[in-house]
Amino acid sequence: MADPQEHPADLPGCPSAEGSGLLPAELRAWMLLLAATGAVEQRLRAVVKEKLDISHDEFLILCLLAEQPEGGLRMTRVAELLGRPKTRLTYQIACLQHAGLVTRRSVCGDKRGIEVALTDKARGLLTEASGPLAETVTRSLARFMGPDQRAALCGLVPDLAEESRPE
Membrane-spanning regions, if any (predicted)? Predict the structure, then answer.
């Protein structure tokens, strides 16, 4: 089976940010975000596995935790933010804990509450891998999105404006 990443011209076009169809602006924007997310996730999975040796879902957990100024997040909040079932999250957290990337602890005053935080090992790995991961995001967006879609996302990803589209 041919790799669709090798022939982006053969792929159907991304939804347009300007729109001339039936959808209101909010739904067009949502479709644009879905297209962008799909393009990035497709390429990011391999880079995450190579650089961090974890799954994409585990990577998303680490990213959520990395954005916490102090401490961590309750597992219920992580599940809520990622839209994942709590049982699946429990398994992923156990895998991350086994790898030495997160810690779990009871929340003070709440027997049922569990807080998850990054370890120093995870912080180091994320710092080391952040350059190639960020580059993967930028290149994925530039490769799979047309000029209208890239222009719409440049407010969120300024480096995208500078990335040339591969031929």
Answer: none
Q: Buried b vs exposed e over 108-124: b needs ≥16 C-beta within 10 Å?
A: eeeeeebbbebbeebee
72-88 pLDDT, tens digit each: 899 999 999 999 898 88
Report d(CA 82, CA 77) in Å as an integer: 9
First-to-final CA distance of the chain: 21
Joined together, the tokens standing for residue 81 give: 């933010």
How much is the average pLDDT of 119-136?
Answer: 94
Sequence-ordered list of residues with C-beta below 8 angstroms from that of 40, at least 6 positions apart, any chain = 136, 137, 140, 141
Listed by start position, the domains of the chain span 24-144
Q: Which CATH architecture group holds 24-144?
A: Orthogonal Bundle (1.10)
